[in-house]
Design brief:
It comes from Candidatus Opimibacter skivensis. This is Four helix bundle protein. The protein is mostly helical and 136 residues long. The protein has a single domain (13-30, 37-125), classed as 23S rRNA-intervening sequence (de novo design (two linked rop proteins)), CATH 1.20.1440.60. It is 79% helix and 0% strand. It has 4 helices and no strands. It has helices spanning 13-30, 37-59, 64-90, 96-134. Helix 1 runs antiparallel to helix 2, helix 2 packs antiparallel against helix 3 (64-90) and helix 3 (64-90) runs antiparallel to helix 4. The radius of gyration is 18 Å and the shape is elongated. The chain starts with 12 loop residues before the first helix and ends with a helix.
Length: 136
């Protein structure tokens, strides 16, 4: 088996949970009608990919404030995905069981994103305070 470097975002619980949510969204949208391929299917898949992509991109930023901004962007994409999933349920493209599963994972990802953002901003403020103490 090949061994690869593990990047910091790959160790985050939120990123792991987003991978699960991504599989759920891809599986759910597989059964959407063909005419939705460039509508809800494309939008929902783009939104869920955006969540994990922003976490990955944010992890590459040196500034904790920048990292928190990317985490915030991920949350926006999560809410976009939820809105699209609810609409899909409203028009009978997503079943009761599927929307319940999606919402459960959206709640979990949202909780983890909130915790990550708070941690990033707390560490940013601590760095800022430490730097101001050392500046004459």
């Amino acid at each position: 088996m090949l061994k690869f470097k593990t990047y910091s975002f790959e160790t985050l619980d939120v990123w792991k949970e987003i991978r699960i949510l991504s599989k759920i969204i891809y599986n759910a949208t597989n059964s959407f009608p063909r005419e939705e391929k460039f509508g809800l299917v494309s939008q929902m898949r783009r939104a869920v990919i955006s969540i994990s992509s922003n976490i990955a991109e944010g992890s590459s930023r040196k500034s904790l404030k920048d990292q928190a901004r990317y985490t915030e962007l991920s949350f926006g994409s999560l809410m976009e995905l939820l809105s699209q999933a609810i609409l899909s349920h409203d028009i009978n493209l997503v079943s009761e069981i599927q929307i319940a599963e999606i919402r459960m994972h959206v709640d979990q990802v949202g909780f983890l994103l909130d915790g990550l953002k708070k941690s990033q901003l707390k560490r940013f403020n601590e760095q800022k305070n430490n730097n101001s103490k050392h500046t004459p």
